[in-house]
Amino acid sequence: MTPQRKAQLVTVLVLAAALAVVAVRRAGWNPRDWLSGWGPKSEAGPQEVVYAMLDAAREGNPRKYLAAHTGQMEAALKQAIAEKGEAAFAAYLKQFNAPIKGIAILEPQVLTDREVKLRVEYVYQDRNEAQIMYLEKVSGAWRIARVESTERVKTLIPYGTPVQ
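Structure (tokenized):
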């Protein structure tokens, strides 16, 4: 192969690689996202577990909802699912979470190396409610272990009030 032919081949390969990079970027792919699957998996933090639980409730997915819990809460939820049936429990989850307009989760308060406390505030159309959740680390993953009763939070301006 002549030196001129080698130069042409290298030029074509470099242009093809550049076009591939542009196509990958335009498609919304990020090489860092693709490569991150090769490294160690990062665990979901306590807040992410609560968000995942709320997403599962919104979707009406009892299995994902149950997976966010542990201990007595998990046992009580399993019993409720067995008594109502999975479809009825899924409908209950959707119905119960439909009026929630927003969520605010404060930074976790570390109680021990295996337990944290979170304050979760639910925003509804006409009120706000706050609840304290305790999460435990079980087999390296955070799970909701218990919750305190919900308390109403006084709001000065209800959600959705028009600005004047």
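The beta strands are 102-105, 109-112, 115-123, 128-138, 141-147, 151-153. The two ends are 78 Å apart (CA to CA).
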